[in-house]
User: Which sequence fits this backbone?
């Protein structure tokens, strides 16, 4: 299959979330420093990525979010607060959070977000999908995946004729990690290992190339400033994927691949 004319896809998602920097390293300002440095690095490498932005971070650092857009990257939503997971909450509650997220990001950079990356390991339920539809958010990245499919597909939302686009399940993904968040319920995280991360992330890219699939990587700017060696690994993996001819996936491009809704 073709990924916008390329043989495989690599999707790097950058989570912009100053409240997580505050929570785990005690200084929310590191988000700005880390994102600014990352933008410089990406400009030098001439690659454009997707940035999943918290609404509350867009309110706090509107110029930073505008800088991300000005640098040619894609911005979408990561929820408003990064507090409770979406799954299990009422439709009204989830819709309220998504509306605030959408308005905050629009206020910061003028972008009408068309995608949502659900925080807390993609926690979501049918109400999340419905709330997204009601706010004109087309792409939802969560535990809902298109079974057996390498590419994104439309998915019916329960109890109506609305649909959203979800990523294909026949894909591989990884995230950076740190032992700074030991309280994560389902991820007893280890100290970051540059060697381990490099091996796994490169293997995912090579798997995607071999099979014509998409590999994903989620990175957290606040981790880049505390994980020794991570920035170099991220750089090497991006350079490798670029050299192999990857399409650096965007939300808009993935929605496009799902075809007309
Ligand atoms: Zn997050």
Assistant:
């Amino acid at each position: 299959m073709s990924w916008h004319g390329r043989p495989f896809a690599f999707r790097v998602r950058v989570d912009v979330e100053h409240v997580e920097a505050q929570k785990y390293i005690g200084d929310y300002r590191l988000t700005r420093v880390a994102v600014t440095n990352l933008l410089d690095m990406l400009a030098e490498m001439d690659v454009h990525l997707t940035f999943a932005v918290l609404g509350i971070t867009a309110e706090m650092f509107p110029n930073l979010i505008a800088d991300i857009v000005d640098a040619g990257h894609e911005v979408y939503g990561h929820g408003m607060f990064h507090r409770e997971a979406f799954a299990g909450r009422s439709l009204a509650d989830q819709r309220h959070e998504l509306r605030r997220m959408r308005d905050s990001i629009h206020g910061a950079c003028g972008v009408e977000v068309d995608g949502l990356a659900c925080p807390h390991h993609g926690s979501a339920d049918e109400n999340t999908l419905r709330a997204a539809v009601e706010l004109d958010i087309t792409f939802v990245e969560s535990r809902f995946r298109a079974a057996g499919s390498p590419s994104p597909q439309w998915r019916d939302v329960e109890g109506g004729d609305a649909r959203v686009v979800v990523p294909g399940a026949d894909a591989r993904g990884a995230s950076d990690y740190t032992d700074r968040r030991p309280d994560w319920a389902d991820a007893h995280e280890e100290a970051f290992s540059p060697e381990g991360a490099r091996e796994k992330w490169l293997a995912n890219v090579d798997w995607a190339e071999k099979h014509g699939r998409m590999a994903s990587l989620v990175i957290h700017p606040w981790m880049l400033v505390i994980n020794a060696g991570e920035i170099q690994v991220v750089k090497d993996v991006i350079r490798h994927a670029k050299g192999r001819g990857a399409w650096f996936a965007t939300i808009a491009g993935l929605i496009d691949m799902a075809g007309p809704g």
